[in-house]
Amino acid sequence: MSVPTDNQKLLEQSSLYREFLAERAEILRHKWLESEKAGRDVGFERALTDWKVKHRAQWRKDRRKLNAG
User: Fold this and answer.
1) Cα–Cα distance, 64 to 46 (Å, whole number)
2) Could you tell me which residues come within 8 angstroms of residue 3 by beta carbon, excluding any fewer than 6 positions away?
3) What percent of the chain clears pLDDT 70, i.e. is strictly above it?
4) In this predicted structure, what is the pLDDT of residue 3?
C-alpha cells in the first residue's frame, strides 16, 4: 500500500476532482441502467453522450442546490 503524496492529497481534496468523481459515478450508473434496458453493454462512450444530452444540466442544477444549502 503506497502512502499518498502531497499532490495526491491535494487532488483528492479538490472540489473539481470531487465533482468529476460524482459525475463519473452518475455516468456509470446511467450506463448500467441503459445496458440493462438494452440487454447488452451499451459502452461508456454512448452512455456518456446520452447522459450529457439528457441529464447533465439538471444534475448540475441539483448539485448546486445541494451544495449551496
Assistant:
1) 26
2) none
3) 94
4) 65
